[in-house]
Design brief:
The protein is 40% helix and 15% strand. The chain has 426 residues and is α/β, with parallel strands linked by helices. It folds into two domains: 7-258, P-loop containing nucleotide triphosphate hydrolases (Rossmann fold, 3-Layer(aba) Sandwich); 265-420, 3-Layer(aba) Sandwich (Rossmann fold), CATH 3.40.50. Helix 1 packs antiparallel against helix 2 and helix 7 packs parallel to helix 8 (244-253). It comes from Dankookia rubra.
């Protein structure tokens, strides 16, 4: 169980880093533009017209990158329809003021509200590993919207809280930062794509209803992926009654589509990978490089910050729920159970480099490693690791060697197909 007050966010410069600006366009889509704020390309040119997410999805199947899946195909068709309705979509916003972002954020005059013809967005819900993020990425890469942004939902909320804090500092005594916050967001994005839409924090729940109402009123279209149906958001939490209008708003402004794929592609990928590589060396390092690429879809992730009981715990790399770190990053500094439980909740897979032989001379690190493994096991987080020896030879003799026997047993169990088939518990 994750400690109360623990949150995770991935650190990126600015409000958002658009996924299309740092990754290649999906097959079937035109190459991404260099900047978010450029005018839309000429959509009347058939040479430049993107084919949309459905042809992009089919192209991946044709190339052998994906296997046909009826549930994914239905979701791709739904996204294709939304793609058509959004081509060239650009709701009205006020032109930027000379002082740039801060002036736009702090201004008092609201952006004119959009007409009721704003297209409905999409809420794509399903169990983990069914391809929700992949489908949204195809849609985002093809979307013919001049201002679009793709972000993990927790990161979005962290950025919103930071903006609200700055606004309150600049306007002491004024009660409502939501309109200027919505103004600033719509000036940056008419299409918001949220990955892993979840609500666990009361501070998020308190502002979501009014913020999204303001965003929708300004013409923002939302596409979101989630493991949780709208009716189950914030379920069982104090104050949920006040949260129910937000759920109704989501169901009104977003089409809710369940991705009922029978296969868990994420678990299939990891079941096909060796997960323990020893001894240490170039071969083991290459194996972990390949595992991270296979599981995360990128060669290198972004730095990630875990918020644990008011503290910031920095991680070197994270992408799509896969964290990569050196052994000393996690066990060579004074981290405790709350830190490891938050990590295991946030990441479905940990790629861990350089586990050394352990013994009385480095027992502090061994003790932290034992706690880390327990946290991973509790949350069914998968572990891909390079180590100096097999699990049962890591801590062979000396004081506390008997204590490590249970950890070695767990490490061997975590390599089994039965464990790798278990669903991650956030």
């Amino acid at each position: 169980m994750v400690p109360a007050g623990a949150q995770a966010r991935c650190s990126r410069p600015g409000f958002v880093e658009a996924r299309s600006n740092r990754r290649q366009a999906a097959p079937g889509c035109r190459p991404p533009r260099a900047g978010l704020s450029r005018p839309a390309m000429d959509t009347n040119s058939t040479a430049l017209r993107p084919a949309g997410p459905l042809p992009a999805y089919r192209a991946r199947i044709a190339k052998g990158l994906l296997k046909p899946d009826p549930a994914q195909a239905l979701a791709a068709e739904t996204l294709q329809d939304l793609w058509r309705r959004l081509r060239g979509y650009e709701p009205q916003v006020e032109p930027p003021e000379p002082d740039g972002f801060l002036a736009r954020f702090f201004r008092r005059k609201p952006v004119p509200e959009a007409e009721n013809s704003t297209p409905q967005g999409l809420y794509l819900v399903g169990e983990v590993g069914r391809g929700k993020s992949m489908l949204m990425d195809l849609f985002f890469a093809c979307a013919e919207v001049p201002r679009k942004q793709r972000i993990h939902f927790h990161q979005f909320m962290q950025d919103c809280h930071q903006r609200i804090h700055r606004w309150k500092q600049a306007h002491p005594g004024e009660a409502d930062p939501i309109p200027p916050l919505a103004d600033a967001i719509v000036a940056e994005a008419a299409l918001l794509c949220f990955d892993e839409f979840q609500v666990h924090d009361i501070t998020d729940a308190m502002i979501l209803g009014r913020l999204f109402e303001a965003l929708f009123a300004r013409g923002v279209v939302v596409v979101a992926t989630s493991n949780t149906a709208p009716d189950d958001l914030f379920k069982g939490k104090p104050g949920r009654d006040a949260f129910l209008p937000f759920i109704a708003l989501i169901k009104q402004r977003l089409v809710v589509l369940t991705l009922a794929a029978e296969r868990d592609y994420r678990r299939e990928r990891i079941r096909g990978l060796p997960t323990w590589h020893s001894p240490l060396g170039a071969r083991a390092e290459r194996a972990l490089d390949a595992a991270f690429l296979e599981l995360a879809g990128v060669k290198q992730g972004k730095r990630c910050t875990l918020r644990v009981l008011g503290r910031a715990v920095e991680l070197p790399e994270e992408a799509r729920g896969v964290v990569r770190a050196e052994f000393d990053d996690l066990c060579g500094r004074p981290l405790g159970p709350a830190d490891y439980l938050t990590l295991a909740s946030h990441a479905h897979t940990l790629v861990l480099d350089g586990i050394p032989r352990l013994g009385p001379e480095n027992f502090d690190r061994a003790r932290r490693f034992i706690t880390l493994v327990d946290a991973l096991y509790e949350h069914r987080c998968k572990l891909v690791a390079s180590a100096a020896a097999p699990p049962d030879s890591l801590y062979e003799q000396g004081e506390n060697a008997a204590m490590f026997e249970r950890t070695a047993s767990r490490l061997m169990e975590m390599q089994s197909q039965d464990y790798l088939s278990l669903q991650h518990l956030p």
